[in-house]
Design brief:
- The chain is an alpha/beta fold.
- It folds into 2 domains: 72 residues, Orthogonal Bundle (434 Repressor (Amino-terminal Domain)), CATH 1.10.260; 195 residues, Endonuclease, Chain A (2-Layer Sandwich), CATH 3.30.870.
- It is 49% helix and 14% strand.
- It has 12 helices and 7 strands.
Length: 282
């Protein structure tokens, strides 16, 4: 892996945000470099996270882009804490647009997702996603609900682009049999899984209930792998989002996924089981 192994999650997140802010300001990297007396290559390194971020450089960029004070302070705080390994945040209710995860998914070359309770987000239908969100956060407003469903659907464009990552989804059979939403929602959701599973870059496997106790009982997680950056593990639970980046942590989750797969059905048997459940639902 040729990326900088010492670049933390915070640095990678700030670097991505700097690029977004520059583009929103309508400036090219060369124009920013000229205005701030930096080299174009330095701007590129700052936006890719290849080089370490310095408070002075980031502050200068944020000033040029006229970033609001609250956002500026948040980003500069992340730069100050960039050497801390791992990254987590708590938010009331549901994550707003799952922004950090979306950013990392967009850069990943491979995404491996194990879900114990629900269909993986990248494979959910709009009506299934809506029912899930309403069940988790029954007080969410209609406008917020629409935004959250739209965000989840926007995430799924990841699987339809020309440079789509390899997506490896493993889900517990219980999630496929749990009735979600109005009658017909689960039937259509499972039919959607059968269609998506035919895509060459998508692998879908189910852990049957008959497997009994297995490693997946410890909870859901996502392993994100990148062509030129260290891998990450993402977890979400009751309003807390967490990214793990230490090599030992990532390795432990790879082992956990391997153990889960020992109990999972092969792809062909998986589609047979899903088709069977679809038939049972009528």
């Amino acid at each position: 892996m040729s990326g900088n192994p010492h670049t933390s999650v915070r640095s990678r997140q700030v670097a991505a945000e700097l690029r977004t802010l520059r583009e929103q300001a309508g400036l090219s990297g060369a124009e920013v470099a000229k205005l701030l007396g930096m080299s174009p290559s330095k701007i590129s390194r700052l936006e890719t996270g290849i080089t370490g971020l310095q408070i002075e450089d980031v502050a200068a960029l944020l000033g040029l882009y006229k970033v609001p004070a609250a956002t500026r302070d948040e980003l500069l705080d992340q730069v100050r804490r960039a050497e801390e390994r791992g990254w987590w945040t708590r938010q009331p209710g549901l994550p707003k647009l799952w922004r950090t995860l979306i950013d990392f998914e967009a850069k990943a070359s491979r995404v491996q997702n194990y879900e114990a309770l629900v269909v993986p987000g990248l494979l959910q239908t709009p009506e299934y996603a809506r029912a899930i969100i309403q069940g988790i956060a029954p007080t969410v407003s209609e406008s917020e609900l629409n935004s959250l469903v739209a965000a989840r659907m926007a995430r799924q464009t990841l699987l339809t682009r020309a440079s789509a990552p390899q997506f490896f989804a493993v889900v517990d059979e219980g999630a496929l049999r749990r009735p979600i939403g109005e009658p017909g929602v689960m039937h259509r959701q499972l039919q959607h899984l059968l269609v998506v599973a035919e895509q060459p870059h998508v692998t879908l496997r189910v852990v049957p209930v008959a497997a009994g106790a297995q490693a997946g009982l410890r909870g859901s997680f996502v392993i994100l792998e990148f062509a030129e950056e260290p891998a990450l593990v993402y977890m979400e639970n009751h309003g807390t989002e967490m990214f793990l980046e230490e090599e030992a942590d990532v390795a432990a989750y790879r082992v956990a996924l391997g153990n889960i797969l020992q109990a999972a059905l092969a792809p062909a048997a998986t589609t047979e089981l899903i088709a069977q459940i679809v038939t049972e639902l009528g």
